[in-house]
Amino acid sequence: MRPKKPRWIKCVPGERCFRPQCKPLSKLAGVHLSLDEFEAVRLADLEELKQEEAAKMMNISRPTFSRIISSAHRKIGDALVNIKAIKIEGGCCEIIKKG
């Protein structure tokens, strides 16, 4: 397997965990969203960039961006539908300065 090329991200969420309040923490499952998945969601859904543009901003190919955003959407959908926490952490990323 080929090593992952570092993905460029501008938005660092810090320590973020979103959890439903309707279930006690001890009975709550969770999903992990990587930093590159978080950045892909930000670019595609919040900034409303096309996949080609977003991929360039992250220094990856469009098909790679498509796989990342699909994985992120699947995890977020799982968390919303199945009442799970979302923890954002990790990933093969390089933080770039805004500008």
In short:
By secondary structure, this protein is an alpha/beta fold.
Task: Describe the protein in words.
With 99 residues, this protein is an alpha/beta fold. It has a domain at 28-89: Orthogonal Bundle (Arc Repressor Mutant, subunit A). It is 40% helix and 17% strand. It is built from three helices and five strands. The chain has helices at residues 35-46, 51-58, 62-81; strands at 7-9, 16-18, 30-33, 85-88, 93-95. Strands 2-4-3 form a three-stranded mixed beta sheet. The protein has a two-stranded parallel ribbon with strand order 1-5. α1 packs antiparallel against α2 (51-58), α1 crosses α3 and α2 crosses α3 (62-81). The protein is elongated, with a radius of gyration of 14 Å.
What keyword list fits this structure?
elongated; alpha/beta; Arc Repressor Mutant, subunit A; 40% helix; 99 residues
